Amino acid sequence: MRYLNRFTLAVVFGTGTLTVMAGAIIAPVLNVMRAGLGVDPARAGLIITTHSIFIAVLSPFVGVAIDRVGIRRLFILALVVYAAAGGSGLVIDSFWPLVASRAVLGLAASVLFISNTVLILNVFSGDRRNQVMGWRGSANALGAVAWPLVGGALGSVSWHLPFAVYLVGLPLAGVALFTIPEAHYQEAENQAEKDSVLEIFRSAPVLVAIYGLIFLSSLLLYSLVVFGPPLLEGIGITSPFGIGLFIAVMGAASGLTSFRYGRIKRRLSYRRLILLSLTLWTAGFLTLGRTGNTALIAVSLALFGIGQGMVSPACMVWVGEVSPVAFRGRISSLLGTFGFIGQFAAPVFFAPVVLRAGPQGVFTAAGAVCMALLVVLAAARSRYRS
Question: Is residue 175 classed exposed, middle or buried when 0-12, 13-18 and 19+ CB atoms within 10 A define those classes?
């Protein structure tokens, strides 16, 4: 395997946060943006979610392109497109052109997410792969904390100004031109002629469980993002800064855990890692469903973050372990599809619960789901114990 120097790793980790940044950087100015564009809250929400829709839909096609063309050229091109599409918000003053630019941004972000994942999977192996994937997850979590703060600070000047941050894709593309290797191999092309995606799923049915896990993780994360603020409002925490601090606790816990993922994985099999995460999630969500104590709420969010910090890198590495090199783009791309579908499903899935039982009912239901899965997995005999 090829070696990535510290400059290449900096590009990998830096671009890893761009998918997070795509929505997080402008979320703090959404209300001001809505007033500036003259649209209602529902339409304004499309500005935040459009790129995610396109990541979910386009990821499988991007995976095919990466497997056939390679990583390097698409990676660099995506950084340029990301900068152009995202940065165009500096000068766009109309709603639909802005939404269209977000769709293009989603395409670029999809390429970056998948090529970033496949690059790590193809270049590293063993404990080093676990370590680097964990570092990447830690960088993403840090971005989830930092980017909204940056966007809020810039948005205090103008709602257009946060869009300037997307232009960071241009210098990253320049550095990537000299540091990103082509992690696409001839043996991969030969293997692609022998196998098919369907055959890979037949030989590795655990992929279904991995995609289900990433879907669940995203579903639970966005249940907290969507219904967490109303819960906090119910106990008197209404300021955006105060709510942001609680969300930051979750991100910090996830980031610190991901940073140590390499060491954690050396001690735990995938089965035990998932059991531990489900245990933490069960405890966290059931506590959120019962308490109004701020300290317990913060601890519950941290418990979810710890589980998230293990599950996210685990799913990415696990996919790489069970898929041939020639198909890693396609197989990895479905992580993005199921992850972003989980994000969109959260408000819909829990809507009937919140209407009947409020935010705490949502978290009690989420805890019950985690507990049921925990019991099933604990009772089942795993076929994959590495």
Answer: middle
Q: Read off the pLDDT of residues 179-206 as tens digits, 9 standing for 90 and up.
A: 888 765 544 555 554 567 788 888 888 9
> Is the entire prediction scored with pTM above 0.85?
no
* Structural domain boundaries in the chain: 1-184, 195-386
Element (H, E) at 262: helix 261-267
pLDDT tens sequence across 112-161: 999 999 888 888 888 889 999 999 989 888 888 888 888 888 888 899 99
Q: Tell me, what amino acid is at 231?
A: L
Give, rounded to a whole angstrom, the gap between the first and last alpha carbons of the chain: 21
Cα angle 275, 311, 230; round to 5 = 95
Fold of 1-184: Growth Hormone; Chain: A; (1.20.1250)
In CATH, which superfamily holds the domain spanning 195-386? Answer: MFS general substrate transporter like domains (1.20.1250.20)
Residue at token pair 């940073």: 259
1-184 and 195-386 agree in CATH topology: yes
Q: Which helix (H) or strand (E) holds 152?
A: helix 126-155
